[in-house]
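User: Sequence in, structure out. Go.
Assistant: Echoing your sequence, followed by the C-alpha cells.
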Amino acid sequence: MTGEMTPGRPVERSTATFKPRRRRLSDRRRADLERWLARWGVDVQGPPLDWHRLFGRHAGVVLDIGFGHGESVLHLARTAPHLDIVGVEVHTPGVATVLEAVEREGLGNVRVAHGDALDLLARIPADSLHEIRILFPDPWPKERQQHRRLVGADVVAACTDRLCVGGALRLATDVDDYAAQMVVACAADPRLLGGPVDDVDPVEDRPLTRFEQRGLAEGRAATDLRYRRGG
C-alpha cells in the first residue's frame, strides 16, 4: 500500500444510490455464501484497511464498485494476477456468483465486500488504490430520481482522494445524460486528467457485461470514460 493510512474525505448521502433488488437464496446457497464470505469477504464498515495484511503481498489494488454479476471482477482477476481486486456489491446473488468462482478457481487476488460502496470507501486509506472502476451504475433515469446517481462530484472527489498519483478512474454507462453528468463531475476535480475514450478493448480493458448486452439489444451504446490522477 502506498501512502500513510490516512482517510480520504467521506461521502454522506441521505438517499440510496442503488435500486433494491430482492431475490432470495436457497438455504444451501445462503450457507455457502456465509462460508465464502468468512474466507474471502471484507466488511464494509470498520477501521482503515491495510492492503498488505488483507492480501498478504504488496501489489496494486483495484476497487470495482457495484460489480453486478461480477464479469469485470473475475475477468481482471484471471487476466491480471499481479493485481489485487476488491469488489463491492449490495445485491446478494451477484456477490454469491463471484465468491463461488473465487472459491472454485482459487482466485486469491480477489476480496468481496457485501454492502454499500459508500460505507466501504470510508475504510479505504487515501492515496492507496491503483484503479477504481464504476461500470454501469444504476442509471436512475427519471429526472426526479437523478439525485440518487452514484457518480456525482462528491463521489468522484472521494474516489480521487483514494487513488495514488497516476492511478486510474474508469467509468462506463449506456445512458447518454448520465455520461454527460460523469464528465461534469470529473471535470470539477482538477486532479483528474482524461475524458471519454473510444478505444476500449473487451479483452484488455473490460468484458461485455450482461447489463451492456441488454442496453445494446435496446439500441443503447456504452460511453467509456478514463481518467488518471495527476496530483
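User: And one key feature?
Assistant: The domain at 56-229 is CATH 3.40.50.150 (Rossmann fold).
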